[in-house]
Amino acid sequence: QAKLDGKHGYRFYSLAMDQAVERRMHLEHELRGAWARGELDLVYQPVFRMEDNRLTGVEALLRWQHPVLGAVAPSVFIDVAEQSGLIDTIGPLVLEAACRQARAWQQALPAAAGLFVSVNVSPRQLRSAGFADEVRRALAATGLDARQLHIELTETAVIGDELRVGELLGGLRALGVKIWLDDFGTGFSGLSHLRRVPVDGVKIDRSFIADMLRDPDDLALTSAIISMGHSIGITVVAEGVETEGQFDILRERGCDLGQGYWLGHPLAPRAFEDLLR
Ligand code: C2E
Ligand code: MG
Ligand code: MG
Ligand code: MG
Question: With a threshold of 0.90, does the pTM exceed it?
């Protein structure tokens, strides 16, 4: 009996595995030419200064609209791009497109004069030998001031290779580029990273913000991240601000910047321009 169950269990597992692998391979295949076919687009989510509610920047977020599959979630296709190495070609395209868009807005719209753009960079992209050059090339090609480019890294991107990553980030910061740690607080060793890796800011993970008003521990942790950030002189950003109540308490605790559905959804360039006008 046990043996039969085992065999059955194994079969089931193997079938599910096959399907998952097949789906990934299919996505990888489809993703390969997606940029060239115009299926990949950037949307931009506004980032506000909490003190006076002023728009200060945007985060560029990638979208994939597949003709048959529809919208594929970034959490899915970014992972496929990262695992398959496709990020090596998509990453630099995203970087340059985001810089170009920010520069165009700065020049065309008075409300966007000092606007920064924040670009997500995956672990593999950060580690590729040419990353610093990619950044320099994107800035040179678009004319964006380095100080208005922010790079968002997750804690997993800086784990391990701290010495080399620290050096790389130091070089980018010397240009004026700002480095932010994304989804901050979800990794266990957030504080120790801040000692070894030079960053200009942290983005408090939205899971803390989501439960802040219900869970005293999350509120305490959020407050602690804000004071810790300020005591070491870095910018603190809250992501996933969905309600006015969350916004008010973050402002009261001195959080510098905020981003989230209550403040503004990610928007296609056209819609963003309407907002700016
Ligand atoms: P992230 O960098 O932490 O981006 C924030 C995510 O939260 C975005 O999801 C955004 O749409 C969503 N969000 C913003 N405000 C709210 C809110 O108030 N409530 C909730 N529930 N969500 C909110 P998205 O666009 O699905 O992106 C997911 C992740 O995919 C990003 O997380 C980032 O890690 C990655 N990603 C997106 N675009 C790129 C890219 O161009 N390159 C790389 N390497 N990764 C990217
Ligand atoms: Mg981000
Ligand atoms: Mg985040
Ligand atoms: Mg995230």
Answer: yes
Residues 125, 126, 128, 132, CA torsion sign: positive
Whole-number pLDDT of residue 1: 43
Give the pLDDT of residue 189.
58
Instruction: Give the Å distance between the CA of 151 and the centre of ligand 2.
Output: 9
With a cut of 70, which residues of the chain have pLDDT below it? 1-13, 188-191
Of 183, 172, 162, 178, give the one whose Cα is nearest residue 225: 183
**Mutate which of 41, 153, 239 for ligand 1 pocket (most atoms within 8 A of beta carbon):** 239
Q: Which atom of ligand 1 is nearest the CA belonging to 91?
A: 42
Q: Cα(240) to centroid of ligand 1, in Å? A: 10
ipTM above 0.90, yes or no: yes
62 lines ligand 1 (CB under 6 A): yes
> Which atom, in ligand 1's list, is nearest to the CA of 261?
18
Which of 61, 78, 202 is the best mutation target for the ligand 1 pocket, counting ligand atoms within 8 Å of the beta carbon and taking the most?
A: 61
Ion ligand 4 neighbours (CB, 5 A) are 183
**What is the residue with the minimal CA distance to atom 27 of ligand 1?**
74
